[in-house]
Amino acid sequence: MTVGLNAFLIVAGLLFAVGLLGVTLRQNTLVIYMSLELMLNAVNLAFVAFSRYNGTMDGNLFVFFIITVAAAEVALGLAIIVALFRRRQSVMVDQLNALSH
Amino acid sequence: MLDILFYVFSAITLIAAVLMVITPNAVNGAMCMIVAFIGTAALFVLLEAYFLAVIQVVVYAGAVMVLFLFIIMLLDVDKGEGATEYKNKLTIGASAIGFLLLAMLVLTAFSGDYLPEPGLTAVTENPEVFDGGVPFTTSSKSFGYSLFTKYMLPFQVAGFLLLAAMIGVIVVSKKHDVAED
Fold this sequence. Notes:
The complex is a heterodimer of chains A (about 100) and B (about 180).
Chain A: H1 5-25, H2 29-54, H3 58-88
Helix pairs in contact in A: 1-2, 2-3
Chain B: H1 2-22, H2 26-46, H3 50-75, H4 89-110, H5 140-148, H6 152-173
Helix pairs in contact in B: 1-2, 2-3
């Protein structure tokens, strides 16, 4: 494969940018959360690319741990969103402003 | 051949990610997200990280997105007021400009000869242990070897973290009496 490391890093950077765009653009908490997952995924891609081009296994193992933490984080985050919905009957960020006034 | 596959999978991943961000319906967004995750798994295969590609499909595209879809359908958030709207006009403009700047930054930082580009070395199947990190192999045996030697403590901590998350989810989602607090 003649595709270099920088091509993978560009893809990872663009994926991260798209995820950040989703976080700033959307109102729905669940979509914001999915965008956060996308950003984590972009970082994973950069890790694997660095690991492959460096010739060491450590980046791959780090991605393994990131996926573990992300799975735990998703379960807990979604439980918090469900608890929030039960209390406020909404998951839209413009209606979840109890702390701002 | 592999180069064409790289461009195809990158395009699929990026287009699915953009669709996930801009589609108004959260369920459609989750479906696009699954495509983006599988595209990333395909990129992992191109990088010869086969074990991680499988993990990516099973954990991310499988378990995590099923959980997301379950919650989206359980809460039925698309019916509520303002469910499909974006944030206000100023936020849209500002985030679009910020995104463009970020994309420009990525492109200019990595295009041309600005950064050194290491060559791709062949993967060895049965590497000798050498100092300075575990050598890259495609076999999942080296994964297990590293997990139980160099990364023993993080491995244990990750297991404990999963237990803590499980207990945390049970505590958070337990039904409280609303009148009580």
